[in-house]
UniProtKB/TrEMBL annotation:
Gene3D superfamilies named among the record's database cross-references: Aldolase class I
Cofactor comment text: Binds 1 [4Fe-4S] cluster. The cluster is coordinated with 3 cysteines and an exchangeable S-adenosyl-L-methionine.
Function: Activation of pyruvate formate-lyase under anaerobic conditions by generation of an organic free radical, using S-adenosylmethionine and reduced flavodoxin as cosubstrates to produce 5'-deoxy-adenosine.
Cofactor(s) of this protein: [4Fe-4S] cluster
Record-linked PROSITE patterns: RADICAL_ACTIVATING, RADICAL_SAM
Location in the cell: Cytoplasm
Keywords for this protein: 4Fe-4S, Cytoplasm, Iron, Iron-sulfur, Lyase, Metal-binding, Oxidoreductase, Pyruvate, S-adenosyl-L-methionine
Entries under Pfam families matching the protein: Radical_SAM (PF04055)
Catalytic reaction annotation: glycyl-[formate C-acetyltransferase] + reduced [flavodoxin] + S-adenosyl-L-methionine = glycin-2-yl radical-[formate C-acetyltransferase] + semiquinone [flavodoxin] + 5'-deoxyadenosine + L-methionine + H(+)
Protein name: Pyruvate formate-lyase-activating enzyme
Record EC number: 1.97.1.4
NCBIfam families: PFLA
Organism of origin: Anaerobutyricum soehngenii
Record GO terms (molecular function): [formate-C-acetyltransferase]-activating enzyme activity; lyase activity
Length: 248
């Protein structure tokens, strides 16, 4: 059996994902996240602990599980590792993606970039990981650093630095942005985000994800106060406005 560093604390899996990367995908949701997004619909993934019902699984175990569905992937599908925040478990990701690429599988990481740093040992591992990663879905929570702190509890400086690094190495990314009324849904912020995106050379797609309230019950189950109480999802007009501003 591998040591726990090369294993993953898994929250859940999805066999036929269709929105987390190209084609039909096997999605692994890892446990643990350093951000505390006010709109998070999975606060049960925050803590890096198996007390939540998460299970330790090895790379081989997960790969074998995924391969049962390979017939459905066709040419465009594959495996996406999401979260929580997958980069918190970078040792597992490295081993898992190496094995996936040996099988010719298309690999995607869905990340908000919270753990990224150019300090060692993380940065060398990240550079190595990128050799086995075909695409990243990168969530930009807010372009403004101070507003990002309010929205997530953390600065966005290292996250934007990760995205610039990915642009420098020309690693393909899809950018995702959750549109939250009274937080990120202001033309000023959307324009600044558009300027940042246009400074990059690796963005294949920008997706606007309208804020929704479907995860509120999980906050209540965990005994947490929901910070966006009373804020409704954005109107169709505001979603279209954001798509227009953020068109690449």
């Amino acid at each position: 059996m591998n040591d726990k560093n090369a294993m993953a604390l898994v929250h859940s899996t999805e066999s036929f994902g269709s929105v987390d990367g190209p084609g039909v995908r096997f999605i692994i949701f890892l446990q643990g996240c350093p951000l505390r997004c006010q709109f998070c619909h999975n606060p049960d993934t925050w803590k890096m602990t198996d007390e939540t019902g998460a299970i330790w699984k090895s790379a081989d175990e997960l790969l074998n599980q995924a391969l049962r569905y390979r017939a459905y992937w066709k040419n465009s599908g594959g495996i996406t590792v999401s979260g929580g925040e997958p980069l918190l478990q970078i040792d597992f990701l490295l081993e898992f993606f190496k094995k996936a690429k040996e099988k010719g599988i298309h690999t995607v990481i869905d990340t908000a970039g919270g753990p990224f740093t150019r300090k060692e040992p993380f940065f060398s591992k990240f550079q190595e990981l990128m050799k086995y990663t075909d695409l990243l879905l990168v969530d930009i929570k807010h372009i403004d650093t101070e507003c990002h702190k309010v929205l997530t509890g953390r600065s966005n400086e290292n996250i934007l630095d990760m995205i610039r690094y990915l642009s420098d190495i020309k690693k393909p990314i899809w950018i995702r942005h959750v549109l939250v009324p009274k937080r990120s849904d202001k033309d000023e912020y959307l324009t600044r985000l558009a300027d940042f995106i246009h400074s990059l050379n690796n963005v294949e797609k920008v997706e606007i994800l309208p804020y929704h309230t479907m995860g509120i019950y999980k906050w209540k189950e965990l005994g947490l106060d929901y910070p966006l109480e009373g804020i409704n999802p954005p109107t169709k007009e505001r979603v279209e406005n954001a798509k227009k501003i953020l068109t690449i």
